[in-house]
Amino acid sequence: MATARLGVAPRFLLSYAASLGELFRHPGRALLSAFGIAVGVAMGLAVHIFNDSAIRAFSASVNVLSGEADLVVRGPRSGFDEEVFARVARLPGIGTASPAVEVEAKLAGRRESLKVLGLDLLRAGSVQPALVTDLEIPILDLFDADTVLVSPQAAKHLELERGDDLVLQVGAREVRLKVAGLLAAGAFPQRAALMDIASAQWRLDRLGTLNRIDIRAASGVDVAALRKSIETVLPAGIHVAEPEEEVQRGANLSRAYRVNLDMLALVALFTGGFLVFSTQALAVLRRRQHLALLRVLGATPWQIARTLLLEGSVIGLIGAAAGVALGYALAWIALGPLGGDLGAGYFRGLTARPEVGLWSIATFLLLGLATALIGAAVPAFGAARTAPAPVLKAGSAEAAAAPMGSRQGGVVLMLIGAALAPLPAIGGLPVPGYAAVALMLLGAVWLTPALTQRFLALLPLPRSPGAQLAVAQLRGAPNLSGASVAGVVVSFSLMVAMAIMVWSFRLSLEAWLAHVLPADLYVRANVSGDTGYFSPEDQAVIAATRGVARVEFQRQLSVLLDRLHPPVAVLAKPVDAARPQASLALTAQPLPVPAGRQPAWISEAVADLYDVQAGGTLTLPLAGTGHDFFVAGIWRDYARTAGAVVIDRELYTQLTGDHRVTDAALWLAPDASADAVAESLRNHVGRGIEIAEPRVIRQLSLAAFDRTFAITYLLEAVAVLIGLFGISVSFSAQAMARRAEFGMLRHVGMTRRGIGEMLATEGALLGAFGVAVGIVVGFAVSLILVYVVNRQSFHWSMDLHVPWLLLAILA
After folding, report:
1. Most buried among 110, 162, 603, 704, by the most CB within 10 A?
2. Residues 6+ apart with CB under 8 A from 372
3. 387-393: long-range contacts at Cβ-Cβ below 8 A with a sequence spacing of 24 or more?
4. Around Cβ 778, how many Cβ atoms within 10 Å?
């Protein structure tokens, strides 16, 4: 007899009663799935808040410095000749031109720096009013060369009060300034100090140099035309840009790091979706006969699917809402101690507050909901397609478990991923690489049921009855087995890929440090800031110090190659043009230098960012003049992600007339003591200089590496933890769905121990196979991470290293 279709009202009640009833009957499983979504959303939103807050604070800092300026003229961190100001200020169309000295000054006795701003206070009022209004002292008092104002953030961080001394290191000596008061609250969102420009030039040893010129166009003047006019009078290495471009250039420095954190957070959300899939797939198995009975009573396949999707949406909404609250709480707690760059050092000194807009909240709510719906879609539509008659028979669990994919689909996904992997970056980001990783993981999930079925078919029957039953059960339920193995594959492949990537980077970093640190002792004017240097007199003292057999001096400075990229480091050091690989970690054999050409060796970042290859020409602006260099080789540099260029120091001195240096590498006499040499240097050169042995530098570098990757470890651990939850849910729910089977086995004489042996064998076989597949897939994904994502994100290469012992322990 035909059964009438359910009406609109009964269908409505059916969906909601069935969905909510199931959630109320098993709240623990539903909450566990919601927890997976919540953690993924929380990680994603927290990282987004970190990134967005840091960029907002950096943008606010730039906006305060530029004030009401229409254009900003900026040169290298070492500054440019103040004669440029006279050229610019005389141009027609200039309303106000405000010169500035902007220096990261080393704090005496501390391993950190403080931004010091030197402004023409009479001009700054019309260009940077926020900095010079509401001061605690009359503005004329700032013309005292020993007077400085500090921001409230700096005063709090350095524990300074009005009347205290602020001690800076300039060269190898100390400069003592008096804190006359604080900048207005909210005037500058960064740790900083303000001085009169003439005082800053004198006390910070910047006489005759500026760092920037802020320009307001005269009324009615076209800014674009004025910009072109200014460009015609600027020397090489000095650029004019709009304030928005200043923000973009600073943000570009950390963009790759921030995007990689976003991707890791999305991985956590992806594994949360897999947890929803595992929970819903086993919930469908548990209710297969109920759902089949509803089909017999007249429910349509779409009604069944909609009912199950409604459950997934409820789980997704609960998880996403909890994730938004948790993510904001995490950002609020951690933003202060970690900073907007999560400890990576890109935005030192910035005070960022967690801010999140309604659009961001809505986006992550929708992401959580969409992820849960995608996780619930496969079991929902699989159950809807299943005919009710076979399900109502005994032993129908396998029939109700719809396969997740096909062999052909999985192969196609992985081939597409392999084809995308070598494609170039899009907009400077490894978008094809990220897509390749995602397709590799999805392809592995799609292939898992077919691979599991093949593995079980080849598996020999063991002798133990319990183990034999386990193998027979797995062979008879390949779809169920494939669903369980897929969770192992996803979680373990992610773990393997990240372990190989991080291990490869760490060992490559260690090898690089051993190569670039050949001396016995290293001396630096300061490890942070721009004000440390060794004068020719200091260099003579260092070279003549008792116990020093040989010394090599290095000058480090930064130059702007264009207005859109961060400054590039120039390292002027002794280099043997015939054997540069002795001091540089070259990626290939060096090229012979043509007669009459000046050689330079560029880092991989410079080669990628500026599209310059070995054998090409690179123009470096030095001392206001552009010089063409022959690129004789490309070297690996893990210290400067914005790029670095090495030239011979003697050549640098000839081109610039600059005899100062910032670093010294010392080879000691056989009977010399490193501690004795270090103490002698501090006594005769300055107590504020930094002295370290290579092993200490390596330890500090690796500690910084671990800090930078700490959030990576955390996000990876969260993703793996969610995946492991999914695996446990899958196995336990399968066991509960087979209670009738266990009862029958007990009835025919099988002991609890035998059932336990059977379940343990099933879990061990599927786990071992999942681990094996996960190692293969994880290794493939690690190749993309090592050779594509990291190279395109950070512009450095690394050697592949597999941590076999660690992977064995994890397996």
Report:
1. 603
2. 33, 37, 272, 273, 276, 312, 313, 315, 316, 317, 319, 320
3. 388/291, 388/292, 388/293, 388/295, 388/296, 389/292, 391/288, 391/289, 391/291, 391/292, 392/289, 392/292, 392/293, 392/296
4. 29
Please name the residues in contact with 107: beta carbons below 8 A apart, sequence gap of 6 or more.
113, 114, 158, 167, 168, 169, 529
Q: What is the distance of C-alpha 264 from the center of its chain?
A: 9
pLDDT per residue over 336-369, tens digit each? Answer: 555 555 555 555 555 656 677 788 888 888 888 8
Phi, psi torsion values for 311, nearest 5 degrees: -60, -45
Q: Which two tokens stand for residue 634?
A: 């490309």
Longest dimension (CA), the chain: 108
- Answer whether 450's CB lies under 8 Å from 406's CB: yes
* Element holding 71 (H helix, E strand): strand 71-74
Rounded-to-integer distance, Cα 570 and Cα 620, Å: 9
What element of type H or E holds 720?
A: helix 710-737
For 539, list phi and psi in degrees, rounded to 5: -60, -40
pLDDT band for position 552 (cuts 50, 70, 90): very high
Terminal Cα-to-Cα distance of the chain (whole angstroms): 56
Query: What is the average pLDDT value for the chain, to the nearest integer?
Result: 81
How many C-beta atoms lie closer than 10 Å to residue 383's C-beta?
A: 27
Question: Helix or strand or coil: residue 696?
Answer: helix
Q: Interhelix angle for 301-338 vs 27-66, to 10°?
A: 50
Sheet of 568-573: strand order equals 617-622, 625-635, 599-603, 644-648, 568-573, 548-559, 663-668, 521-524, 690-692
**C-alpha–C-alpha distance, residues 146 and 158, integer Å:** 18
Q: How far apart are CA 804 and CA 93, in angstroms?
A: 67
Residues 6+ away with beta carbon under 8 Å from 494: 267, 271, 441, 716, 719, 720, 723, 778, 781
Token output for 746: 């007990």
**The two three-digit tokens of residue 207, written as one number:** 């006489």
Coil, strand, or helix at residue 231?
A: helix
In b/e form, how buried is each residue of 505-517, taking b as 16+ CB within 10 angstroms?
Answer: bbebbeebbebbb
Type of residue found at 626: G
Distance CA 389, CA 288 (A): 11
The token pair that represents 108 in the structure block: 């005496």
In sequence order, what are the beta bridge partners of 169? 106, 174
Tokens of 616: 């090409």
Residues 57 and 541 sit within 8 Å (Cβ to Cβ): no
pTM of the model: 0.78
Nearest to 351 by CA among 156, 212, 161, 167: 156
Find, among 806, 797, 786, the residue nearest to 512 by Cα. 797
How many angstroms separate the CA atoms of 237 and 209, rounded?
14
DSSP, residue by residue, 298-325: T--HHHHHHHHHHHHHHHHHHHHHHHHH
pLDDT attached to residue 377? 80
- Contact call for residues 415 and 446 (beta carbons, < 8 A): no
Q: What letter would DSSP give residue 662?
A: S
Tokens at 733, concatenated = 């729910």
Q: In sequence order, which ranges of 459-535 are alpha helices (DSSP H)? A: 465-476, 478-516
Cβ(792)–Cβ(260) below 8 Å? no
Is the backbone of residue 119 left (phi > 0), alpha (psi -120 to 50) or beta? beta
Tell me the sheet residues that pair with 170: 173
* SS3 category, 638: coil
Alpha helices in 135-196 (DSSP H): 152-158
Report, as an integer, the average pLDDT of 280-298. 71
Q: How many other C-beta atoms lie within 10 A of the C-beta of residue 491? A: 25
- Residue 142 is given by DSSP the state G
pLDDT exceeds 80 at position 446: yes
Tokens of 796: 């450095």
Reported as half-sphere exposure (CB side, CA atoms, 13 A), residue 757 has a value of: 14
